Each structure stands twice: as C-alpha cells, then as structure tokens.
Amino acid sequence: MKEWLEPQEIAVPESLQAVVGGHPLVSQSLAQRGITDAAAARAFLDPSAYTPSSPLELPGMQAAAKRLVRAVHQREKICVWGDFDVDGQTATALLVSTLRRLGGVVSYHIPVRANESHGVNLPLLKQVLDDGAHLLLTCDTGITSHAEVEYARGRGVDVIITDHHDLPASPIGESAPLPQAIAVVNPKLLSPDHPLATLPGVGVAYQLAEALYGGATPMSQEDLLDLVALGIVADVATLRGDVRYLLQRGLAVLREARRPGLRAIMEFAELQPAWLTEDHIGYEIGPRLNALGRLADANPAVELLTTDDMDRARVLALELEGLNARRKLLTSQVLQGAVTQIEQDPTLLENATLVLAHPTWPAGVIGIVAGQLVERYQRPVILISTPAGELGRGSARSVAGVNVNAAIAAQRELLSSFGGHPMAAGLSIDAQHIPEFRRLVSREVEGMLGAIPVQATLSIDGYLPLAELNLELAADLERLAPFGAGNPPLTLACRGLKLASVATIGRNQEHYLLTVEDEHGGTFRAIWWQGASWPLPEGTFDLAYMARTSTYRGGREVQIEWVDARAQAEGLPELVAQRPPIEIVDYRDQAHPLPILRQLQAEGEVQVWREAEARDKLDGRDRYALLPAEALAIWTSPPGPAELRAALERASPRKVYLFGLTPEAERPEAFLQRLSGLLKYALKAHQGRVSIPVLAAATGHREISVRLGLAWLEAGGHIVVTAHEGDEMVISLGEDSSRDQLSDRTAQLKSLLEETAAYRSFFKRADKESLL
Fold first, then answer.
1. Residues 741, 606: one domain?
2. What is the dihedral of CA 301, 305, 309, 314, to 10 degrees?
3. For residue 116, which of 108, 121, 337, 736 is within the disulfide window of CB 3.0 to 4.6 Å?
C-alpha cells in the first residue's frame, strides 16, 4: 500500500473551464499540471493548435543536413548505424526511408545484442568502412563514441551523430568534450525546458528528416510519424512540448495502419487500429519489436518497418510472435529467480539500490524484470547477467528523484562501460566487483534521496464514485491523453468499497479480475494488472483507480484499472470468494494409462483434454472447446505453459488428473507431415479454409508453431495463402517453385519445436504442485 497524496486545491480560471469544457475534472487536472492559460490548454489538447519548434533549433542540425544533402547529390555511400531497442529500430527505419526517398545510397547496421553492445563497435565499424561507406550517420547512439569517430576520421570518413542519451561526463562530473564528428545533434545540448529537450532517438531522426526536406511544412513527413510514436512510447520519453505533439500526430497516423509491417503486427496482436492508444504501443507492439533486439538480430526490424509487401511483412511479424512468446517465458523465469534471491537474503533490501546478479539470466530481458522489481520494491534496481568467463552485463531502472545513470557513472572505476538515461541505464562489470559496486552505488543513491525510500506515494487527482463513471465520462477524461512520463494518467479514488469476488486471469494467471461493491449495493468490475502476487484488502477499503475506454472483444466499454487500496478503520473483514486449491492426481508414470482413463470416465463426470492424434481415439475436447468442469483429465501433454494456464482458466476444475502423453508429431518432419495432411483435407473438404486454432489443436502444438509451419510450406512452394484475416486463412496448392527464406524458416521452426519438446519433458517430470 502507498501513501496517498490528496488532490491539491487549485482554483480553476473560468476562462480555462470555458475553453476545455466537459467534466470539471479535465480542467482541474490541467490546472494541477500547471496549465492554467486557455491558449496553452488548447495547444495541449489539440495538436493543430500547437506550434512546433524548428528542427534547426537543435545544435548541429544545419551542419548535419548540409553534409547529408552533399552525400546524396554525390552518390556517396551512407551507413545508418542504429540501436537494437524500439527507439533505435524506428530511428534507423525512418532515416533509411528518408535518405532513399531523396535518392541516397544507403545501408544500415543495428548491433546484435549477443555479440555487440550499445553504441558503435570498432570491429564492426571497420567492416562497414571496408565495405565502402563514405559517411557514417548514427541514430539513438554515438554520443560517447570518441575512439570510433577518431578511427573513422583517420580513414577519411565523416561521421554525423544523432543521439539523445546523456552527454559524456568527466570523472569529476563536468561535461566532457563531445566526439569530433562533422555534426553532433543531441537535444541534451538544449536547455532542459526547451520544447525539443526530451526527444528520443527517433524524434531526433525525424527532426533531421524535416531539415533535409527544408522544413517546408510541419506535415511534409507525416507518414513517418507512426515510427516516431512507437519510439516515443517505447523509450518512455517525457511527454511535453514537441514530444507530446509528435506523439499525438503519430497516434493519428498509426490508427490508419498504412504501414504493412505494423498492420501485420496488429493482426497477430488482435488490435483494432482505429482505437489504438499509447497503451497498445507500450504493452503490445513495443514488446514484440523489443523481443527481436533482446533475443535475436534487430536488423530485420528495419525491413519489417519499411517493406511495402504485406506477405513479407506477415512472415517477419510471425518471427516477432515466436520471440515475444519466448521473451515472456524468460522474463517470468528471471523475475522468479530475482524474488527468490531476495527471499533467501532479505538484507539485500537494506540497500538503497537493489543489485542482483546471476550467471544464467539472459541479458536481453533483465531490463524488463528490473522495471517490474522497481514497481514492487520502490527503489532503483540493477540486474546483472554474469555468464562464466565473460564480463557481467547489467540493466538498471530507477524511481523518480534518482538519476541512476549518474549514480552508476560515479562508480566508473569499477566498470568496463556504462551509459543511458536518468531513469534507465546499462553497464558492464567484472563479476568480482559486484559486491563493492552494490555498496557504493547504494551510497550514491542515498545521497540523492536523502534516505532509503520507506514508502512510495500516490498522487490522487480527484474523487469520483464508481457509480458516476460511464463511457462518455471516461472518453472525456482521455482528452488529456496520450499519457506517459511527464503526463501520467488520472488516478481517481472512491470510498467505502468491499470485495465481492476475485478471480485470477491471464495466460499465466498473473492478473486479478475483481468485483467490488459500493455502500449502495452497486457492483463494478476492476482489473488489477500483474496483481495476482499481491495481497488483497480486507473489509471496507478505499480504491485508487484509473478509468479507460476499452475495445475488448470489439465493443466499447469502460475499464476500471486497480491502482491501490487503503483500508478503512471501520468494518469487519468480508469473506472473499477465492478459487479453492486444485486437487491433483498424478498418473504420468503409469505404463498403461488408457484403462485408468476409461475407468475414470466410467465412474463419473470427467472432461478429457486431448489433442493431436488422440482426437480420433478418445472422447473429449481440445484446448479451445473446454467447458467448466469439476474434474479435468489432461491426456495430451500441453505444448507450453501459456496453453496449460489458458486451459485451466477455461475449465476451472477442482480436480485434475495428470496423464501428459506426448503427441506423435513432435519432430519437425512429423509435425510438417501431419500439418500437410490437415491442409490437404481442408483443400478437399473446405475449399482451402483453415483456422489456426483448429490446426493447433489437431497437431497438439502452439499457434505460433502452426503459423511458422504454414510459412515453411509456403516458402517451399507447397501452398499459397490467398487470403488471411486474423486466425483464418484460405490456401491453395503451390507449384513447388519457390524456395525463398526456406532455410530461415527451417531453423526457426526447429527452434520452436525444440522449445515445445523441452516444455513437454519438463511437464513429464516436474513436481505436480508446482506444475499447476
């Protein structure tokens, strides 16, 4: 529970309320955020009323644009060097698109996280220059690349740096010289209150594109603003001045879904473009793109974001789905490992900074987990992956009031490298230095805070009973969007609630769906994201919440998001309807399981979950057709933890019988053979219409494996996908003529099926209690 800060009493000028209109909470919130002038409010709410800054206000912009124009006209080879997160991917795609439109000869390079780190890597730079690059243009990186810039200059190659990360500092904390590039364009060179000061890397890239086009009109590069919106949200840029304006315009472009790559991502994520918000970028689109850079090679993201070929876009987006599923699994495992470390050594929480390390943690996901731990423990968190024989690679996330990048930089003598922002940073360190680093960085953070944070605070924007909430009001409050850093969503509160029921939902049962009752007997549903590991309030309580409009399952409705609760002094604890524990009966080691299952079916009502070839042999249901039942027999081994969780959520059994037989189509050859047989039947009996869920149940595999199997068959010329919408496809026979990307598809499919096989092996031997 957090300490609530009550709403401030601020007088709202009549002129402000007259301009803003709608519910008084809107104008009150603007006043609380320092916007009391009517013209400023109009510009905040309506991007057409905002006057954007000139790109030339960024230091170095004119020199950068002039050099690039010369390179384009003289047909010099330009290499755009980006970064592997979403900000770097979108900045690279934006600059490559712009320069090619102008007629430039352009290549690009995004570092591969497994082999390189952030920034310009000297060995790879040598290769780029050997390949003939005449001009190096960085985006979202390069501000500390002194040695690399000097090397390029020594070979007669000019460098232009566009970046937004903190400027290099000397050991005594003063600004250090910048790399000796032809131009350095970084909003950190502006005063902190400048409207362009909080641009992310893709925002700087967009300003450069505007400058290259002469800044004829603010709309000259409107079709690039969808990329800008992605980078702004994914990089958690502060939403003020031009950054908010660019995000508002970028969201409008995203809702038109013009770019095939983003349309394909939205299809797989089941998003409706017309209702897209910054939340969909932050929780659906951004993580998919980030998974590419975290777990594989982010260079294909540039092709995904620039291709005009919808079929190619779907193939690339399909790769993201598989990587994103893997990213979720790895994130869950690292989070559990981190929490276990803390439980085993509570003294770790005596430090102002939580510093944890483990040799098996994938470096690509530790930043995500660090952010989750910040929310849980309310202090800066640094997680470090320490593989044997290698430097440890760390990711840091911070809390308001702590410049974690500066705190890390103060320990530079212990580090091999570091860099980042006040709220997020990275580092590399020898594992033997971690204990000393933990002590010193915590001391630095204590100095910034004055003391170790004891209790987090929560600012309440206003009190609004849930009974007064409706779709029109929620939409009115969302005029203050887009929300994010510098413009948090409204946190409202209501008093005197009781819990009526609780259920866990989500693929991994990580969320709470709660029904709350007010003092008049009215009931309301609220969702508590990632709340399932937190305690629930007892008795009568006050609720802090956010109200959003939602398009879940196609309809517009109000969604109440649980933020926090505080107990009231009066009232006795109420009985909350919790799901009873599941009784588990284990038959996984039985040599002859079928007679046992027959006996269970003869003795009473038991629902059998069976898939793949067992569909033809046993009465039962697949994962999509399960109904609520007292008893569930898991006959076919699930292909993954998400599928198991979803099945348990559908069936809600009180008793589970574990059998877990592995389907026959486990190896790639067998899987493709069974999939091909199913497609032949669909061509004969259903005019080629197929459903991804039906094929997943019929093969006993994950949907992502089925999609990749179809992509393999199409790449091999066996089938042609003639129509595709969501989970439904129409196929026809191919001509065995195409072999494009077949080797890539083969390797990806093999990897996915190996993951499924590993999970099924785990399912066969894991402790029954922990399994469910």
1. no
2. 60
3. 121
- Report the pLDDT value the prediction gives residue 573, as an integer from 0 to 100: 37
Q: How confident is the model at residue 570 (pLDDT cuts 50, 70, 90)?
A: very low
584-624 pLDDT, tens digit each? 999 998 999 999 999 998 888 899 999 999 998 899 999 99
Query: Residue 217: its pLDDT value, please?
Result: 42
**What integer pLDDT is reported at residue 455 of this predicted model?**
59
How far apart (Å, rounded) are the C-alpha atoms in residues 754 and 523? 47
Q: 492 falls in which pLDDT band (50, 70, 90)? A: very high
Q: Which domain holds residue 385?
A: 345-449
pLDDT band for position 99 (cuts 50, 70, 90): very high
Q: Phi and psi (nearest 5°) for 633?
A: -105, 120
Mean pLDDT of the residues in the chain? 89
Q: Do 74 and 180 reside in the same domain of the chain?
A: yes
In this structure, the answer to whether residues 658 and 680 fall within a common structural domain is: no
Contact 218, 52 (CB under 8 A): yes
Q: Give the pLDDT confidence of 242-295 residue by residue, as tens digits.
A: 999 999 999 999 999 999 999 999 999 989 999 999 999 999 999 999 999 888
Element (H, E) at 139: strand 135-139
Are 633 and 611 within 8 A, CB to CB? no
Interatomic CA distance for residues 761 and 756, integer angstroms = 9
Helix%, strand%, coil% for the chain, nearest 5: 45, 20, 35
Same domain, 695 and 721: yes
Q: Are residues 71 and 197 in the same domain?
A: yes
What are phi and psi for residue 296, nearest 5 degrees? -145, -140
Residue 607 β-bridge partners? 632
Phi, psi of 500 (to 5 degrees): -100, -40
State pLDDT tens for residues 104-113: 999 999 999 8
620 and 679 in one domain? no
**Residue recorded with tokens 């049962």:** 509
Measure CA of the first residue to CA of the last residue in the chain; give whole Å.
29
Is 482 in contact with 252 (CB distance < 8 Å)?
Answer: no
Q: What is the CATH number of the domain that holds 723?
A: 1.10.10.10
Number of structural domains, the chain?
5
Assign 509 a pLDDT band (cuts: 50, 70, 90).
Answer: confident
Sign of CA dihedral 109, 115, 121, 124: negative
At 357, is the secondary structure helix, strand, or coil? strand
Distance (Å, whole) CA 772 – CA 427:
37
